Amino acid sequence: MISRMCNGVPPRTMALLGALLAAFLAAPWVANDYLLTVLIFILYLAYTGQAWNIMMGFAGQFSLGHAIYVGLGAYVAALLFTRFGIGPWIGLLAAIAVAAACGAIIGFLAFRFNVAGVYFAILTIAFAEFARLGFDHLDVVNASAGLFLPVAQYAHNDLWRLRGDPTMFYYVILAATVAAFILCRMLLHSRMGYFWLAIREDEQAARAAGIDTFRYKMYAVMISAAVTSFGGVFYAFFYNNLFPEQVFNISNSVEIILGPVIGGIGTLFGPILGAFVLTGLAESLNSVLAAFGLDLPGAKQVFYGVCLLLVVVALPEGVWPPLARRFGLKRGVQ
């Protein structure tokens, strides 16, 4: 698998990947608690951004309700853990199945009845809102009162039960982000990946060429949903509390997609770079506002909007593609 991954990747790009991985691995040794928490959030957005990128960046299906898959993954794993004592890694299997099934339902309704473009995006928002309202009145998950995971002081990290300090969670989400990067590259350069790109560029032409567009779009939605569900499992066990209004909110879906949009939709490095740029600038803004004693509700959302506007106007491809061309890193990593 390693040789397959490295096939076609220039030495300069391999050196960059190695340097980035080394820096990420060493980060907990030099970062304080605050910076480590910020890095965890960055990697969480990079991971979920990669998962969303499978659906939109590769297959061209614009989802604005991806928070539904995060929420389903979080609630399924948390419920199994709190009610039956089933660990998160086994719960992840159930979370993947539920999220993929939900993606299949959304995809079937959309693609069977030719719901595409902005109407597909609206359909995904509708399902996310339906889930939010449903869980807000579902007693088995304590409805709007919230579902809380037991928290205890551990003398050592328990990776199997995802109980431990922030450093353990950092390495878990780092491993997940690396795995998502590898998976996305393998998918992108597979036969299915080329079919997705054909569908993204011109679905009618792809259908005329003999590609079963319904089938491969369904694959894209289900794979994206399944991969995203791990983000929900991680979210639940890291924050230890779940509220429907918080988890399924459309603002979470927007945060997921902003990384790939700013970094570069359809690229492999784009979601990672976008998550760093967006979160880094947002945290800098918070620090500046705090230094001046300012409390401006909605400042973060306005800032996100300004960043998105600047990227759309100045860098419509995103931040990564121009950088990749400038330093000769595009070939082999998208």
Question: How would you describe the overall organization of this protein?
Answer:
The chain has one domain (12-20, 27-326). The protein is globular, with a radius of gyration of 20 Å. Helix 3 (33-58) packs across helix 12 (250-263), helix 8 packs across helix 10 and helix 12 (250-263) packs across helix 13. The protein has helices spanning 2-6, 11-30, 33-58, 67-84, 88-112, 118-135, 166-188, 191-201, 203-208, 213-239, 244-247, 250-263, 270-291, 299-314, 320-326, and strands spanning 147-148, 241-242. The protein has 15 helices and two strands. The two termini are 19 Å apart. The protein has a two-stranded antiparallel sheet with strand order 1-2. The model has no long low-confidence stretch (mean pLDDT 90). Helices cover 72% and strands 1% of the residues. It has 334 residues and is mainly α.
